Amino acid sequence: MTTPNEVTFKLSRCRSSVPRARAALRAALGEWRSGQPLGDEAELVLSELVTNAVRVPVPGDRMVGVRIECRGRGEFLRLEVSDAGPGRPEVRRPDELDKGGRGLLLVEALAHRWGVDVRRAGIGKTVWAELLAPGADPAPAEAQIAAVSVRPGQCVRVWGAWHTVRAVRSERYASGGPAVAIALSGGGPALRLHAAEPLTVRALAPAGRVGSP
Fold first, then answer.
1. Confidence at residue 137, expressed as pLDDT on a 0 to 100 scale
2. Is the pLDDT of residue 76 over 60?
3. Cα(first)–Cα(last) distance of the chain, in Å?
């Protein structure tokens, strides 16, 4: 599995954030020298996701988070848009007279797959979409496994983002229960979980490569 390119940024909750998100996507693909086989479709999908996010009522002055991941020369793109609003977006089937409500229909039509994740840290949700160029291999499979089964080199999804596992150590809670300490790329304190706690993981990286996902 090649290490993907990725970029994250935040946007204000206003209409001008939609073209800014598209511009950031184009700039990122250009910086990564992507062949951009999915550039136009990705801009449309990202526009719809950001449009929905800036419209969601949220507490306080919280911003919209965006993450873009690119694999290969743009054959696979994952777009994530996070907001602090409640609920889960659903695909609507508007009739011909409705002027709106077709955003997720477009996402569903253009994306290889899409979904909604509850944010592990903070409040709200992350709506994501994966785009796959014709003839390209599907994105690496994801699975939920017990924390005790996680191995170095795997990518795990915690705190709303992917992190590469650097080391895993078995521990025990003061009460005697089994626990696991997982060191992640980027430093910071180890993630400590009950041994049976489920984690979402991706496939192992090539031997000798442990870096940022």
1. 66
2. yes
3. 10
Exposure string for 142-166, b = 16+ CB within 10 A, e = fewer? eeeeebbebeebbbbbeebbbbbbb
Amino acid identity, residue 87? G
**3-state SS assignment for residue 54:** helix
Q: Where are any strands of DSSP class E within the chain?
A: 5-11, 64-71, 76-83, 113-118, 125-132, 143-146, 155-158, 161-172, 178-184, 191-194, 198-201
Give the separation between CA 41 and CA 63, rounded to whole angstroms: 25
Report domain 143-201's class.
mainly beta
- Mean pLDDT, residues 104-133 taken together: 84
Residue range(s) occupied by CATH 2.30.30.30 in the chain: 143-201
pTM of the entire predicted model? 0.63
pLDDT at 75: 82
Residue with tokens 């983002």: 161
CATH T-level fold of 5-132: Heat Shock Protein 90 (3.30.565)
Looking at the chain, which residues constitute the CATH 3.30.565.10 domain(s)?
5-132
Burial of 98 from C-beta contacts in 10 A (0-12 / 13-18 / 19+): exposed
Token duo for residue 110? 């253009």
